[in-house]
Design a protein that fits this description.
Elements lengths: L1 H20 L8 E5 L5 H9 L4 E4 L2 H10 L6 E4 L8 H7 L2 E5 L2 H10 L7 E6 L16 H8 L5 E7 L8 H20 L6 E3 L6 H6 L4 E4 L1 H4 L5
Parallel strand pairs: 1-2, 1-8, 2-3, 3-4, 4-5, 5-6, 6-7
Helix pairs in contact: 4-5
This protein binds pyridoxal-5'-phosphate (PLP).
Length: about 230
C-alpha cells in the first residue's frame, strides 16, 4: 500500500510536470490506471487513494474486479482487443472502449448497450506505426469508420487511441503521437467534435502529453513490473 501510494504520487507529479513543460492546461491529462493482471487488492488500494479510472484488457478477469470495487464506482475502460463474442459483457460492464477498430464490433456494442446506462464512450484505435501485426485501423480508414460509428445512438464517439511500438527515442515517440493528434485535428476540421486522445503508457507518457494526450494509460509505473 505504501509503495502504491508513492508510485501514484510520482506518476501524478510527472503528469503535472509534463503539463507545465508542454504548456498543457493543469489537470487536462487524465490518469487511467491499467490494472490488467493485477490483484484486486492492489486495484482497490488505488481506488482508495483516489484513482477513478481503471483499464482492463480481458473481460473475464475484469468482471471479478468490477464486482469487488463496486463500492467505489470507478469508471472502467476496456482497452484490449475485443472479440465479437465478448461485446455484450463489455457493453454491460464498462463505461469506455478504447479499442474499436472495426464496424462490426461497434454495431454489436451499440446493440448490447443497456438502455438504463448512458451511451458507451468509444475511441477508435489507430495503427500509427503501420505495423501490420498490431491492432488498430489504418490511418487512411479512420474517417470512414468514424462516419459509420457516429450515427450509432448508444455509442458516444469521443476520439482516437494508439499504442505505438515501444521505443526509447523521445523524438520518435512524439512523431507517432503527433500522427494521431493531426489525424484528430483533421477530423475535427471536417465537423467531428472529438475531445479525447488516448495515448501514452509508462514508457512514453511524457511524449504523449507533449502531443496532446487527454488520457494516458499507465500500468507498470503504478503497479510495478507485470509478471504475466
Ligand atoms: C498494458 C497496456 C498499457 C499499460 O502499459 P504499461 O507499460 O504497463 O504502462 C497501456 N495500454 C494498453 C492498450 C495496454 O494493453
Amino acid at each position: 500500500m505504501k509503495k502504491l501510494r508513492e508510485r501514484l504520487q510520482q506518476v501524478r507529479l510527472e503528469i503535472e510536470e509534463a503539463e507545465r513543460e508542454f504548456g498543457r492546461e493543469p489537470g487536462s491529462v487524465k490518469l487511467l490506471a491499467v490494472s490488467k493482471t493485477r490483484a484486486a487488492g492492489d486495484v482497490l488500494a488505488l481506488a482508495q487513494l483516489g484513482v477513478s479510472d481503471f483499464g482492463e484488457n480481458y473481460v473475464q478477469e475484469a468482471r471479478a474486479k468490477i464486482g469487488q470495487l463496486s463500492g467505489h464506482s470507478p469508471t472502467w475502460h476496456f482497452i484490449g482487443p475485443i472479440q465479437s463474442n465478448k461485446t455484450r459483457q463489455v457493453a454491460e460492464h464498462f463505461g469506455w472502449v478504447h479499442s474499436v477498430d472495426r464496424i462490426k464490433v461497434a454495431q454489436r456494442l451499440n446493440a448490447a448497450r443497456p438502455a438504463h446506462l448512458p451511451p458507451l464512450n468509444i475511441c477508435i484505435q489507430v495503427n500509427v506505426d503501420a505495423e501490420s501485426t498490431k491492432s488498430g485501423i489504418d490511418p487512411d480508414e479512420v474517417e470512414q469508420l468514424a462516419g459509420q460509428v457516429l450515427p450509432l445512438s448508444r455509442l458516444n464517439l469521443r476520439g482516437l487511441m494508439a499504442l505505438p511500438a515501444p521505443t526509447e527515442d523521445f523524438a520518435a515517440q512524439r512523431r507517432a503521437f503527433m500522427k494521431l493528434r493531426r489525424l484528430q485535428e483533421r477530423l475535427n476540421e471536417t465537423g467531428y467534435r472529438f475531445d479525447t486522445l488516448s495515448m501514452g503508457t509508462t514508457n512514453d507518457m511524457r511524449a504523449a502529453i507533449a502531443e496532446g494526450a487527454t488520457i494516458i494509460r499507465i500500468g507498470t509505473a503504478l503497479f510495478g513490473p507485470r509478471t504475466r
